[in-house]
Amino acid sequence: MVILEARGIRKHFGGVVALSDGNLRCRQGRITGLLGANGSGKSTMSKIIAGVYRPDGGEIWYKGRPVHYRNPSEAKRDGIALVFQNLSLVPDLTVWQNVVLGMEKSRGIFLDNQEAKQIARDILSKLLPGLDITRKVYELSPGEMQIVEIAKAIAERPQLLILDEPTAALEHAQVKSLFAYMRALAQSGVAIVFTSHRLWEVMEICNDVTIFRNGATVAYIDFDQEEKDPETIISHITGETVRSSPAERTFGEKPASREVLLRAHIRSKVKSLRDVSLELARGEILGIGGLAGQGQNELLYALAGSFPGVQCEVEIEGRKIVLRRPQDAIQNGILLVPGDRQKEGLFLEHSVYSNMVFPKFGLSRHPVIIPEKKYRGECEDIVRLLSIKVSSLDAPVSTLSGGNQQKVVVGKWLSFDVKVFLLADPAKGVDIGAKRDLYEYIRRLARERGIGVILYASDHEELAQYADRVLVMYEGGIVAALTGEDISEETITATSVRAR
Amino acid sequence: MDAARKGIVVLPFEVLKRALLQPEASSLLMFFVLFGITAILQENFFEAKSIVRTINSFAPLILLAMGQAIVIISGGIDLSSGAALSLLTCVLTTVMKKDDPITGVYALILAFLVALGTGVVNGLGIGYLRIPPVIVTFATSYAWLGIALFLRPTPGGESVPWFRVFYNMRVVEGVPEVLKSLGNYVPPALLLIVGACVLWYIVSRTRTGRYIYAVGSNIESAYVSGINTGKTQMLACVLNAVLIFLAALFFVGQNQTGDARMGGPLTLRSIAAVVVGGIALSGGRGSVYLAIVGALILGFVGRIIFFANVPNAYQTLVSGIIVIAAIAGPAYATLRRELR
Fold it and tell me: What angle do CA A345, A346, A351 make, to 5 degrees?
């Protein structure tokens, strides 16, 4: 029996269209997989169904009647539960208190703690045997938190359970017991929506899959009727067969030499990043691809000396150094342009000028009195060079558009002796024109000044256009290296999802 | 063999170290140390009379600190609690007429309603209008002070004689002998504190108590879990107001007067007591009962200064240093835990 049907769902955030035509059908007792590349709209779809976002258009039918949820509580009351990614746990309460949070039962005037503990124990004994339910949540590992989160959703006895990438933080054994529990839930009549970036998981657990690409539903495959063919699914995700005009690859000139600029060996003690070695040539743009959150940011932070728990040995221009602090990297010309410019790259309320001069203060030989005039001159040069649109150097950075903000982040390093630029998704939230300007500039910089660039972009099209070489990351490790003709948006995405 | 022996040696040390890193443990340790020093310095410390006097002098701060702890655990802070205490003493002594015992009852009822009102106003600002608690309660502290000064520009006012039951039962006529002799051993101040503890004990075992911790720990998570966060913060403020009301009863019972400025210094002392008690200012963490321990620590510091014959000129400095040490212990432990 169809329990939920969503048709023609549309949703945009600001000027960005997240969903243009989202369709989804869930049946009682069946597990439906949601698949798609980064930004294909699958997460937006789950959140709309669970009432987190309100759709701009389209209709949702739940148990035979149209529904318009305004918030998650309303959806919850109707039996729709979305498992947040560690969003709804209270760190200072115990595991069992969290499992029943918001739906505690009383006996007399006091809370019925015995029953609550029993509920938590019943669910968790199957999901994660051996977890002490009296521990505080802040003491748990990310994987354990995720499981408590799932247990919390299950304790509400939902009829439709939406799991949004629940396995990302889990270990293999934990995934196995989660799957066993999901099957039992489905058998008891619960409809389950499951999203995951691991293709094999979807193949193993789901009864049918719905595939999203660029905000629209592009395929629906029922495994009861059609065979489980990973290649078909991948082609739907990447859109190889239907794509008419592949993004034009603009090589520019090739890097002049193959002289190795940087050799890095990373020994990692953390889970999100494995041991990684890489080489970077002078003037080369090295792309880092893969699905979101596979350790790309961690890799860049490690190379910038600001990721604790990771030992990064670097050989730059033949000199060996160990990166312990961000200063070590900066003084050796390895500069990071962080991904979240609002949080990490800029002082938003400060002026363009002060944002650009702050990094200079970290230099070991900085004059005691700030040479104001000289710095202002340098800033004006950079503003002109990058064509940053700004009313004056003293305008707060927060008044600039996203693209121009990003230029400031890049620009503030230009007066340094840059050897390696680490760019973490620099074009995120930047409009197309500014994006092209930025990349063209970076490439010119690389070719003319012989700077090595390591570029992580969540949009594989950008990598395909600008990178000379692409490393694909999966679960903290490098799983593939693509060069020359192999580099295209399709191959990068296909390699990303095929990895296991 | 070697490793096993090492394990035995290391283990108790590790356990001790970990125990000491609990903010609660370092507060309790501090308490016992200061308690011991006070007991040594003050000769008649363990005499019944002396114990009663100790409890009486600490009672208002203890009650205010418990209320403050509830608000802080819920993710707020109350900078108006001292002013609210002053206001309540002024209300009580303005309504009461010395010769008319029944006015005492009216005063009790009216002051209780005023107390609830102060809690509701703070709760509305913090919980529903979502104004930062520091701003809300800083503003209301001036409102309470203003009203108190309007009622009682200078300290004074009248109190019915039976109001002394909140301070000392023996001196009140008409109190049964049983209660009087009980009052010899159990001073009313202690009863008020026990009452406050019972109140919190009950609340902490209801939804409200659980939600106060949840909201203070992570308000977003609490909200998406379907908790009414505004109502929860409102209830925390009202509970605080009830405890301030109890403190006002004790103060008027003791002094028979109202004073618009008596409570002011107690506000920051109550916050200090909460911190010394190992309760996280960020909310969600710590026990309300430990606020009592925190208040006692601050009280003992004053005692020690007094009995150790510290020269007048240095008293404030020395007590400041001890308070810093007392805050540093739990604060360090909390920091360690948060950094982990």
Answer: 155
Whether residues A101 and B218 touch (CB distance < 8 A) is answered with no
Q: Phi then psi for A312, rounded to 5 degrees?
A: -125, 110
The answer to the question of residue B207 being in a domain is yes
- Verify whether the Cβ–Cβ distance A101 to B225 is below 8 Å: yes
Residues 6+ apart with CB under 8 A from B128: B230, B234
φ and ψ at B22, to 5 degrees?
-75, 130
| Phi, psi (deg, nearest 5) at residue A288 | -115, 120
Asked if residue A469 lies in contact with residue A284, where contact means CB atoms within 8 angstroms, the answer is: yes
Cβ within 8 Å of A, B 209-238: 210, 213-214, 216-218, 220-222, 224-227
Q: Does the residue B280 lie in any domain?
A: yes
Containing H/E element for A218?
Answer: strand A216-222
Select the residue of B206, B216, B224 nearest A111 (Cβ to Cβ).
Answer: B206
Instruction: Say if the ipTM goes beyond 0.85.
Output: no
- In B23-62, the residues whose Cβ lies within 8 Å of chain A are none
Q: Which domain holds residue B34?
A: 24-339
Q: Is B172 among the domain residues?
A: yes
| Percent of chain B whose predicted confidence (pLDDT) is above 90 | 39
Q: Round to the nearest angstrom and report the end-to-end CA distance of chain A.
A: 34
State the smallest CA–CA distance between residue B216 and chain A in angstroms: 9
Q: Which of A77, A92, A110, A112 to mutate to test the interface with B (most CBs of B within 10 A)?
A: A92
Output the pLDDT for position B338: 56
Cα three-residue angle A38-A42-A43, rounded to 5 degrees: 90
CATH number at residue B79: 1.10.3470
Nearest one of A406, A401, A390 to A462, comparing CA atoms? A406
pTM summary value = 0.73
CA distances from A228 to A199, A204, A206 (A): 11, 9, 10
Which residues of chain B does A87 touch, with a Cβ-Cβ cutoff of 8 Å?
Answer: 220-221, 224
Pairing mode of beta strands A160-164, A80-83:
parallel
What is the model's pLDDT at position A372?
84
Within chain B, where are the H helices?
A: 2-20, 23-41, 48-73, 81-95, 102-123, 133-151, 177-185, 188-204, 207-217, 219-224, 229-255, 264-276, 288-307, 312-339
- Residue of chain B whose Cα is closest to the Cα of A85: B221
Ranking A168-172, A178-182, A193-197, B247-251 by mean pLDDT, the lowest is A168-172
Task: List the single residue in A with minimal CA-CA distance to B227.
Answer: A102
Task: List the single residue in B205, B216, B224 with the smallest CB-CB distance to A88.
Answer: B224
Question: Residue A82 — very low, low, confident or very high, per pLDDT cuts 50/70/90?
Answer: confident
3-class DSSP assignment, residue A320:
strand
Assigned domain for B60 exists: yes
Q: Is the pLDDT confidence value at A335 over 50?
A: yes
Size of interface A-B (CB pairs under 8 A): 60
Question: Which residue in chain B is spatially nearest to A71 when comparing CA positions?
Answer: B224
The confidence score (pLDDT) of residue B75 equals: 92
The dihedral formed by the CA atoms of A155, A160, A166 and A167, expressed in degrees to the nearest 10: 100
| pLDDT for position B247 | 94
Contact A89 B202 (CB under 8 A): no
**What mean pLDDT do residues A369-378 have?**
84
> Which pairs count as long-range contacts for B135-142, CB under 8 Å and 24+ apart, including other chains?
B137/B76, B137/B77, B137/B78, B137/B79, B137/B80, B137/B81, B138/B79, B138/B80, B140/B80, B140/B83, B141/B79, B141/B80, B141/B82, B141/B83, B141/B84, B141/B267, B142/B83
| Domain tally, chain B | 1
Per-block average pLDDT, block size 10, for chain B (340 residues)? 46 66 76 87 80 87 95 94 94 88 89 95 93 94 94 86 81 73 79 93 90 90 84 95 95 89 90 87 87 90 82 79 76 62
